[in-house]
Amino acid sequence: MRLSRGTRAVLFTFVAVALAFVYLPLAILVVNSFNASKVFAWPPSSWTLHWWSLAVHNQGVRAALLTSVKAGAGATTIAIVLGSLIAFAVSRYSFFGRGVISFVVVLPIALPGIVTGIALNSAFSTVLPHLGISFGLLTVVLGHATFCIVVVFNNVIARLRRTGVSLEEASADLGASSVQTFRFVTFPLVRSALAAGALLAFALSFDEIVVTTFTAGAGIQTLPQWIYANLFRPNQAPIVNAVAAMLLLAFILPVYLAQRLSEGTGGGRV
Predict the structure, then answer these.
(1) What is the CATH number of the domain that holds 253?
(2) Is residue 1 a part of any domain in this protein?
């Protein structure tokens, strides 16, 4: 379908405005992280790497970053195992309540974070003391896993539904065992979708602050919590800008890889 010149101009304008609305604040953030002034001034009068240096050597930032990485890795591991298993069960088997399970698995991502946080805090406060477990990194990991599972589940089940079962049936007809079929056919088909789901789940966990606030114990602080706690403190805003700019640049490649992997069709061999 060919669009008129006027229609193309209107669409281009809308796209440009939308992209500017999303990316202009991010560009300003990166530029301002090099601003030599301690207060926001535009345009910056001079440039410096001082704030980046302070951010890199800040012990609070390092500790919070390590905590975020641990929480993200733990939540992603749980999400990969449970999300992929549920996706295989729902897409490859027929049983009573399959639609309900799909809905229940996806629901946590749609719930407001404050609701999930309160619910998890109440559940942990009721159950964990009887098990001798207190609030800490473990509760943060479990809290993040509740919505990270959804990301892995959606990626894997979409790939399984798109590829169908014909290759797996052909593998079985040729005498391959179920283990061989999974190793040489099924897993290569979903490998890229699983990797994309893992990257997105880690990013989602790394960014979470609301659920973390309700599930973290004393002494546990993730990087988003550190940023929020220091954003309005005197003389800390430039360092916060530098940390945020670092995170922005660091997550560009994982997000790009996740998109590319999600677009892949996968492949297998019998």
Answers:
(1) 1.10.3720.10
(2) no
DSSP 47: B
Partners of residue 47 on adjacent β-strands: 35
Assigned token pair, 202: 């880690």
Domain membership of residue 48 (yes or no) is no
Closest CA to 244 of 59, 71, 73, 51: 51
Please write the tens of the pLDDT for every residue from 36-95.
777 776 777 778 888 889 888 889 899 999 999 999 999 999 999 999 999 998 888 888
Average pLDDT, the chain: 85
Distance CA 139, CA 38 (A): 37
Q: Is the previous residue joined to 43 through a cis bond, with omega within 30 degrees of 0?
A: yes
Rounded CA-CA distance 125/53 in Å is: 40
Residue range of the domain that includes 252: 59-263
Rounded distance between C-alpha atoms, residue 121 and residue 115, angstroms: 10
Query: How is residue 80 written in tokens?
Result: 């990969």
Q: Which two tokens stand for residue 119?
A: 């619910």
Residues 6+ apart with CB under 8 A from 185: 167, 168, 171, 176, 268, 269, 270
Residues 6 or more apart whose CB falls under 8 angstroms from that of 183 comprise none
> Is a pLDDT exceeding 80 seen at residue 257?
no
Measure the CA–CA gap between 89 and 110, rounded to whole angstroms: 22
pLDDT at 212 over 70: yes
pLDDT(254) > 80: no
The beta strands (E) that lie in 95-204 are given as: none
